[in-house]
Prior knowledge:
The protein is mainly beta. It contains one helix and four strands. The strands form two sheets. The protein has a two-stranded antiparallel ribbon with strand order 1-2.
Amino acid sequence: MSRVCSICGKGIQYGNKVSHANNKTKKVSYPNLHEVKAVVNGSNKRIKVCAKCLKAGKVVKAA
């Protein structure tokens, strides 16, 4: 299952979690994805869209 937005391509971000003692461990941040029924090329499809694209109105939801 891919964790990538179908509209903007936002995906997983990698970085370090830094403790108070300045210890560093690997950290993974996932995008806030929602599976929605949307109109794509005239037909209804289920796509994964990040919350930012949904709020911006970049997706036309299917009825």
